[in-house]
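Example record used in the benchmark description.
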Amino acid sequence: MIDQQIKPIAMTSLGEQLRLARRAKSKSLEDVSNDTNISKRYLEALEEDNYDIFPSQVYVRGFLSVYAECVGLDSKAVIEQYKKLITYSELLDRQVSERVAHRRRTRRVIRKRLLLPLIVLLLTILCLATLLWLRRT
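Model output (structure tokens):
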């Protein structure tokens, strides 16, 4: 009997799709680890959508592909979904970085605009206080 590949479900996370497909095949993480030679730690990370523990995206894509095939998912569709996820994530990161940079620039401008008048005001107050003190003595 030929094992049909299952298309990923778009509404659930990538990790949840892998977990559901694994459970549908009645496989444990240990079974998948033995079948794929992927550490259980990495399989758990894939199921939890935690891609930060991987050395690079190449590992993530490779492990996703092998894991998907092992549990009967279409590996190409899983990789495409991962690429979209990463593209969206990078876009969000870029937007956050741009906001942070804008805030820093704004703070710098405010500091520059306020710093000189504040120094002039403080020096003026200091000079006036010195003059008043000198007149008293």
